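ok trying this again, last paste got cut off
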Amino acid sequence: MVNAKEFSEEWVSAWNSQEIDKIMKHYAEDIEFYSPVIQNLGVNQEGVLRNKTELREYFQKALALYPDLFFDLHEVLSGTNSVILYYTSINNKKSAEFMQFDEAGKVNFVRAHYN
């Protein structure tokens, strides 16, 4: 079982470091990742990525476009093998991400939401 508080602190720290390997260690190989930013950046029209290689490329593109990226965590909501992180994201937008964990404690499903 994943400790939501520890996970969220490590996840935000990884993003704020902008080190892709630290970010990617949280995600499973068979990730399913939904975000409107995928569409906004022209990655695909579905707004979904279905493997870790695609996810890494997407994150690298986002990091290059937002060199001053900084996440400010506001709330961590715990579920059964899942969390919702509520934080301030790119362009000072509020974001909530639902993240589901596999048996190894890696994120294998995400739905990202922005205001």
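PB: full thing came through this time. The radius of gyration is 13 Å.
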